[in-house]
Amino acid sequence: MIRVIIFSGDLATRNPGKQLAVLDIAYAKKGHLSHYLVAMSLRGVGEMPPDGVASYPRWSASLWDLVARGLTRVLYRADQAPALGEPDRRCAYATKLCAVIEKATLTERAVELGTVEIAQKTGRRGHYTATFTEDVLGPREAHFVYGQKQLNPADLLLRAICWALFDQDRLGPMPKLMLPPTLKLDDGFDYFHLEALREPAKTGFLRYLEDRMPAGTPLNPMPKAKEYTRFLIES
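^ that's the sequence the OP posted. Answer follows.
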């Protein structure tokens, strides 16, 4: 399960008293194309009815992409959020917000996988800069305008992600399942070249292999395709 916690203020000063929203994303069905259950609580609103993200390709895109699709489902009960019009000049605004993606398993708690800080530009109401970090894919930044009469921190985070990933205020296309080309060798097995994998699948698969090999074992640059299939299901 991953948990996304939204706070007022910046990352350095976050604490439970500044918590604005919590989004939980858990497996409903794990596989190459996984189904996720999504639940969220908002300060001042409480628990929202749960929803789900269906047939999402594992290890094929940014974690923030999955977060954005989960937010869209739980906020709008749809696979796409409505487009935003021109910002209201009298819009509600946030000076600073931040959010953290944490991973929780049976053996690990609160492993930080990604962060974002969203800050309004000085003297420019509704003009924001969002600075993202992520475990595998690293940092990215977005500049965007957002202005609604009532501020919803979860929707502000959703729009920040969309601008960072798709350069627009709505989701882009669903990512494609990452399947490298394979080659059948004389032993009858299908193999693939590790360098054919794109991120984040490449790093995820390498970590998966390293966790299962004795220390010091050199990596095979041409692993069996069935090992990658197992990784997509098990990791």
